[in-house]
């Protein structure tokens, strides 16, 4: 298969003035905050090539793309051209040393992402810059053409969005994922007592106590599914506590452009069992807003996804709708 779309023609839409200004401001703010905190912001070389699935796409691709261009390699184990292209992309990610990050997506395990990007065949390579996607090429391509495309992508990221890449520390490799003196970290848990305390707090309507208990678990074990779900539920119940449902719904109807009014109504929708209404309201809020308001609506929608659970078909449908308005 011959490579297609080996140009940056999609950059015209990607580099819209408003989006560029917002992304550049966010990147500068993130760098300033890191400097204030005294953090070097460095990553080990291993962090330049990552495997991404649907659950981690928001964090590892969309959020990461506000500081560095993310190149996405759609591949599959059975795809012979993929086996030619992927090693080249991985080697170039190391060579470019933080100017872009390579995200590898197995299409067999992540068909929803494949559909959202409109992938017609693999290998297919896309990029996400400042939360916006554009196609790069499809099919195996000569390395010289790949380099040219990457150079153009990086130039767009720098000039239009202020993305200068991430710093790579080769000496961090040995310590990456290791504990003191190079030893592997201790396994997390058990958290039975903390989780029981959180449930007891929820039962007593002590939402601040439940939130703190779940956060204590997640501070030590960020991937704890029970604590993630519990925290999302406790925060939701805390937000709706004391609300006047009639007033909230009136405010949402009277002020459709008021993001805070829509967030409050979506919370009430979800608590009342109107899941599709809650998701649809927030997807529409994302569609009609920009900047901080858009981020606020998007993040609340992701939080409500956690309440329902990623395997629920209503969440899957809403994720597709969200991707359409974001891209």
From TrEMBL:
It holds the Pfam family TPR_20. Residues 37-155 form the Thioredoxin domain. InterPro entries: Thioredoxin-like_sf, Thioredoxin_CS, Thioredoxin_domain, TPR-like_helical_dom_sf. It comes from Streptomyces pyxinae. This is Tetratricopeptide repeat protein. PANTHER family: THIOREDOXIN, MITOCHONDRIAL.
């Amino acid at each position: 298969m011959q490579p297609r779309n080996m140009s940056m023609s999609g950059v015209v839409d990607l580099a819209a003035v408003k989006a560029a200004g917002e992304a550049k401001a966010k990147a500068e703010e993130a760098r300033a905050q890191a400097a204030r905190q005294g953090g070097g912001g460095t990553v080990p070389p291993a962090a330049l090539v990552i495997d991404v699935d649907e659950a981690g796409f928001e964090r590892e691709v969309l959020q990461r793309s506000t500081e560095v261009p993310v190149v996405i390699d759609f591949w599959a184990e059975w795809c012979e051209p993929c086996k030619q292209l992927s090693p080249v992309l991985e080697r170039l990610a190391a060579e470019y040393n933080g100017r872009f990050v390579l995200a590898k997506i197995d299409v067999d395990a992540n068909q929803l992402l494949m559909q959202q990007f409109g992938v017609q065949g693999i290998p297919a390579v896309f990029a996400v810059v400042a939360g916006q996607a554009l196609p790069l090429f499809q099919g195996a391509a000569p390395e010289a053409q790949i380099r040219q495309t990457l150079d153009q992508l990086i130039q767009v990221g720098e000039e239009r969005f202020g993305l200068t890449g991430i710093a790579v520390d080769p000496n961090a490799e040995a310590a990456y994922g290791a504990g003191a003196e190079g030893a592997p970290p201790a396994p997390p848990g058990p958290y039975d007592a903390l989780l029981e305390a959180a449930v007891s707090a929820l039962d007593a309507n002590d939402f601040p106590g439940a939130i703190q208990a779940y956060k204590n678990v997640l501070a030590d074990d960020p991937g704890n599914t029970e604590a993630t779900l519990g925290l999302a539920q406790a925060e939701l119940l805390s937000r709706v506590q004391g609300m006047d449902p009639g007033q909230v719904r009136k405010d949402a109807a009277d002020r459709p452009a008021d993001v805070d009014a829509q967030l409050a109504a979506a919370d009430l929708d979800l608590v009342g069992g109107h899941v599709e209404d809650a998701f649809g309201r927030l997807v529409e809020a994302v569609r009609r807003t920009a900047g901080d308001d858009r981020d606020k609506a998007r993040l609340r929608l992701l939080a409500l996804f956690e309440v329902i659970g990623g395997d629920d078909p209503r969440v899957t449908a809403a994720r597709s709708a969200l991707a359409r308005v974001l891209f």
